[in-house]
UniProtKB/TrEMBL annotation:
Keywords: Membrane, Transmembrane, Transmembrane helix
Residue intervals passing through the bilayer: 92-125, 137-156, 162-183, 204-225, 231-252, 264-284
CDD domains (UniProt xref): PT_UbiA (cd13956)
Bilayer topology: Multi-pass membrane protein
Protein name: 4-hydroxybenzoate polyprenyltransferase
Taxonomic superkingdom: Bacteria
InterPro entries: UbiA_prenyltransferase, UbiA_sf
Subcellular location: Membrane
Pfam families: UbiA
Keyword Aminoacyl-tRNA synthetase: no
Xref: Gene3D superfamilies: UbiA prenyltransferase
Amino acid sequence: MMSGKEVRRLARGLVLASHAAPTVVVTGLSAALAAALGSDGTTVALVTAAVGTGQLSVGWSNDWIDAARDATVGRIDKPVVAGLVTARGLRAAALAALAVCVAASLALGLAPGAAHLVAVGGAWAYNARLKATVWSWLPYALSFGLLAVFVVLAAPGPRVPAGWAVAAAALLGTGAHVANTLPDLEDDAATGVRGLPHRLGRRACGVLAPCLLLAAVGLVVTGPGGPPAPAAWFGGAVAACLALAAGATALARPRSRAPFGLSMGVAVVCVVLLALAASDIAVVP
């Protein structure tokens, strides 16, 4: 039986390995968008459970799979290297979270469930192999785009997501991937990880990340029918400033994780704008 200190250590390790900030942001935004689309309480709860456990499984599997690589480069900020949790423990936690994710996703129906599980599968594929290839961006584009599909299909009525909304989500995901990779370019390269950002280089990615985010913002502002409302212009301007700040910070402070945080800020603003245009992001086929 574990002591109280050991339990606290394990809990801290699980929280750190879950990549808590993006997990909370992605889960919260999915729940908010589901509510904005008119989903009832049960549906919102299932969306939250499915996305939350899916994100946990992705975070835990990432640190489990990367445990040996993190130890090689001395990543003491990682809970396995710091001795807070074992790789075996993270594997068990990731698989348990994945099982709950499968059940919650399919409880919303076959079509939305399948869309979400393919999205989660793409993220696992990134962790397992694709992060080290030129296709490292693809799981982010696919998974974030399918997340929008999942939330719309789970909402009431025979509706499908508008193409511009799916494209915006995919661009946000890809931009976040580029921004998130920048601080670890050298450590990743030292252990054989050469995704698309590693191949392009820091300077090119410092420009690419904000460009992708700005493209997403443009779609969110101009995609809905009719001329953009003042709130859309204001939100778009805020998101654009955050995107440009992410690029500038990435170039000025190579090891900073602020660009990823700023890209999450762009995503938050964009989802707020999507919620305000809920009637335009879900259309009758």
